[in-house]
Design goal:
Its EC number is 1.1.1.85. Catalyzes the oxidation of 3-carboxy-2-hydroxy-4-methylpentanoate (3-isopropylmalate) to 3-carboxy-4-methyl-2-oxopentanoate. The product decarboxylates to 4-methyl-2 oxopentanoate. It contains 12 helices and 12 strands. By secondary structure, it is α/β, with parallel strands linked by helices. Helix content is about 40%, strand content about 20%. The protein has 2 domains: about 200 residues, 3-Layer(aba) Sandwich (Isopropylmalate Dehydrogenase), CATH 3.40.718.10; about 130 residues, Isopropylmalate Dehydrogenase, CATH 3.40.718.10. Bound molecules: nicotinamide-adenine-dinucleotide (NAD), 3-isopropylmalic acid and manganese (II) ion.
Length: about 375
């Protein structure tokens, strides 16, 4: 039975980068015999334009039934004025919540070919390989009460940071499991100095550690200091585990350690299904980039690497995932760069589709 892959290109540069991912999927199907049953559907503004909401119920059902979902990006200025309940971003949040994708893995890896490129010094980021595990289905993104209310003569906007022990414990376990397969270190980030939810977070992570993962080295850090340390000396970290909002911000910071937001993939994983595989959605960390949409400037690597994470975490194709990463590093080493990876004095950038073609050609050379 072929693996079922649901592709949701979304908005802005989402469909542009996804076109390049399709080339890579086709290559693996033709050359490595990986059989995928690929179906495409709408999410975000593209779904709103057709259905009047950012995720149709039928699409939600398809996502629940898929072996993996691959998503481009959602949102854009065209939809900024829509009612909050139907904004493109709500479609993505619904997918994450209803599929219960509580562990969001955001690896920040500095490819050798880009060690010179980051705005940070080469010795700070050369060889960097860290994993941010962001809690994705709770916290201030989903806590109640929430809304904009009238209080006397003025409006008040309310969101609530809420975490249960169980929600903290399960994402902590994901982080410890990942650490065991890497360098065995976890740093947990919260603000236990000012937030009760942070105190509980710290306690529960420590309890799970002591009871189940005493072999893993665990440290705790306030999330603001964590942001500073990520830029000062990121190689001190192996796995970072943190909440939904801090994880959102810290992973964008980490993106710049790799050279560009266009380089950072992610995997959002839930509990294992009956077949032992986790429910899973793969997407680049970046958004729909309205400023460059339609210009052929988008870097497709974050989305292609997200498919690489699907090969690894959903399909157990570790060799194939490693081959894809080697091909990307080699293409970058050849000097092929999209505009976001150019420095003053560099030669002409390649377009989105030229980058996709170069990666496919390199796969052929290396395989
Ligand atoms: P963004 O990530 O879309 O863009 C930030 C900057 O990075 C822009 O200058 C953009 O051109 C650049 N950039 C991003 N991806 C790139 C790529 N692949 N190649 C080259 N350059 C790239 O963030 P934003 O501008 O804050 O948000 C734009 C829209 O995207 C908003 O509607 C936001 O809600 C949405 N968004 C969606 C997701 C998602 O779908 N997962 C993530 C973040 C933002
Ligand atoms: C991300 C994005 C999303 C988030 C938005 C688009 C809902 O910024 O995936 O990082 O805030 O989680
Ligand atoms: Mn984000």
């Amino acid at each position: 039975m072929p693996d079922k892959l649901l592709i949701l290109p979304g908005d802005g540069i989402g469909p542009e980068v996804m076109t390049e991912v399709r080339k890579v999927i086709d290559w693996f199907a033709a050359e490595k015999g990986l059989a995928f049953e690929v179906e495409e559907d709408l999410v975000g503004g593209a779904a709103y334009d057709v259905h009047g909401k950012p995720l149709a119920d039928e699409t939600m059902e398809k996502a629940q039934a898929a072996d993996a979902v691959l998503l481009g990006a959602v949102g854009g200025p065209k939809y900024d004025k829509l009612d909050f309940s139907v904004k493109p971003e709500r479609g993505l949040l619904r997918l994450r919540k209803e599929m219960d994708l509580f562990a969001n893995l955001r690896p920040a890896v500095c490819f050798d070919a880009l060690a010179d490129f980051s705005s940070l010094k080469k010795d700070v980021i050369g060889g960097l390989d860290i994993m941010i595990v962001r809690e994705l289905t709770s916290g201030v993104y989903f806590g109640e009460p929430r809304g904009i209310f009238k209080e006397g003569n003025e409006r008040v906007g309310i969101n609530t940071q809420r975490y249960t022990e169980g929600e903290i414990a399960r994402v902590a376990r994901s982080a410890f499991e990942l650490a065991r397969a890497r360098n065995n270190k976890v740093c947990s980030m919260e603000k236990a100095n000012v937030m009760e939810s942070g105190i509980l977070w710290r306690d529960v992570v420590q309890e799970v550690h002591d009871a189940e993962y005493p072999d893993v080295e665990l440290t705790h850090m306030y999330a603001d200091a964590g942001g500073m340390q990520l830029v000062r000396w990121p190689k001190q970290f192996d796995v970072i585990v943190t909440d939904n909002l801090f994880g959102d911000m810290l992973s964008d910071v980490a993106a710049m350690l790799t050279g560009s937001l266009g380089m950072l993939p992610s995997a959002s994983l839930g509990l294992p299904m009956a077949n032992g595989r986790p429910k899973a959605l793969y997407e680049p960390v970046h958004g729909s980039a309205p400023d460059i949409a339609g210009t052929g400037k988008a870097n497709p690597i974050a989305c292609i690497l997200s498919f690489g994470m699907a090969l690894r975490y959903s399909f157990g194709k570790l060799d194939e995932a490693a081959l894809l990463e080697r091909a990307i590093d080699a293409v970058l080493a050849d000097g092929k760069r999209t505009a976001d990876l150019m420095q003053a004095g560099d030669k002409q950038p390649v377009s989105t589709s030229e980058m996709g073609d170069a990666i496919v050609a390199k796969l052929g050379e290396l395989a």
